[in-house]
Structure formats: structure tokens, C-alpha cells
Amino acid sequence: MAVSMSRKLGSVLLASTLLLSACGDRGAGLFAPDPELENFTARQIYERGEYEIENRAPDDAAFYFSEVERLYPYSDYAKRALIMQAYAYHLDKDYENSRSAAQRFIDFYPVDDDAAYAQYLLALSYYDQIDEVGRDQGLTFQALQALRAVIETYPDSEYARSSVLKFELAFDHLAAKEMEIGRYYLKRDNYAASINRFRVVVEDFETTTHTPEALHRLVEAYLSLGLTEEAQTAGAILGHNFRSTEWYEDSYRLLTGQGLEPKARGNGWLASIYRQTVKGKWL
User: Fold this and answer.
1) Which pTM value belongs to this model?
2) Which of 182, 195, 228, 249 has its Cβ near the most Cβ atoms within 10 Å?
3) Which domains does the chain have, with CATH numbers?
4) Is residue 101 exposed (0-12), middle (13-18) or buried (19+ Cβ within 10 Å)?
């Protein structure tokens, strides 16, 4: 990031002190424009924002950075203040305003060196709101889209690798949601509904950590429905790709307990996956 977060204030302290007395108590982050700020330069107001960042007052910092943008919209400090504004809002967990400031930076300065960081902050504004599995997953989808934008638009940036890792975690989070719902239906003997959820994991989230369990749950659900060919095929895929897991051991016991073996059977959707992933046949 072009803007240093740890620069020493040095001579800025005097200007900061003056700004403190000029602004007084603005209260809880809801700040009205202070006309006295017009007596200070863009640099002085900007450095006051940096001072507030260093003193862990991101809401105050965001105010000062926004004032730079308001009072000196065509200055170089306005551009720097805009990206810092997005950063300060994010520190304050004001994700909506952080996202708004980051998007403005991208719109105004799409080829700037800090555009990648702005896109990364925008993605984080969604990602950092992803909560426990039981919540609505709309934010997870938005986080995935925004992280993908970082990865594809700025592949050589320092934020690409972090975005890839966060993308994988968010992707895994969606799979976890499908698994939670699938297990809910399975416990209530709603086998068809549970199969639909586990199928999504196997087909759309096959690279996540939840695939072995999803295949085992398919063995359980299909055996409960008496659909032995599908259960055997799920067991065969599980045995081929995840033989060392507890899920394969459990599935193997279930199948052999009914005189069956993990083996690809029939022509259903699981048999198609078996042919593709195990046999390498795509037709």
C-alpha cells in the first residue's frame, strides 16, 4: 500500500494539537463539517487522520480523511485520504462506509497503485461479516465475487495470495452450510431433501473438506431408501478418493453389513462422477 500506516508524526504533533482544539468533542463518530477545519491545509488534516489511526480512533480518523476529500477534492491528498478513509472505516467495522469509499477509489482511480488494495478492502468488507454457518449466506457469495475480482484483476499484487486463501475459506463455508442443512433433513428421515444437499457438495464443492462426509451421508441416505446401487457407487468414490478417512470406514461397515461392497453400479449421477473422476472418462 502506498500510504504508510506507521510514519512518525514529528512536526505534525503541533498541527494535530491545534486541530484537536479546533474540533473539540464531535461525539460518537457522527460528525458535522467543522468550518474551522478550512483554516488548515490538506496535509495537516490528513496527518491528523493518521494520528487518530495510530491512537486507535478509526472513527475520528475516517472523519478527518473525509474532510480532506471534501475541502481539497482535487489535491493529491484527497486521493490518499480516500483510500485511508476506506481503511479507517474498516478498522471501525463500519463495513458499508468502507465499501463505499473503496468503490469510489476504484471508480475514480482505476489504474492507481492502490486500486488493488481498494478492491481488497471492498472484498474484506463482505468477508469479515461472514458469521457462523447458520446465518444467511448472501454475504458469502458477495465475498466470493469480490475476492475473485482481486485475484483476476490484480493477480500479481500482494493481495492476490491472501484473496485466494480467503476465497477457499469462504467456499468451504458455503459447503458447510449445505452440509448442515443436509444433516438436518437426514436426521428427520427426509432422505430426498438431504440427498439434494449432499449432491450439491459433491458436484459443486468437491474441492472442499466436506466432500468425504457428503459421500458418506449419501451412502446412509441411499441405503435408507433401499437404493443400493447409488449407495455402493457413493462408497466406491469415497474409497477411491478418501480411503484413509473415518467416513470411508463408516461407509464400508454400513455397506458390508448389508452384504454389499463399495462398487460403481448403475447409470445415475454418481456413476457419471465415478467414470469422470476415477476412470477419467468424460462421455
Assistant:
1) 0.73
2) 182
3) 1-92 (no CATH), 95-177 (1.25.40.10), 189-283 (no CATH)
4) buried
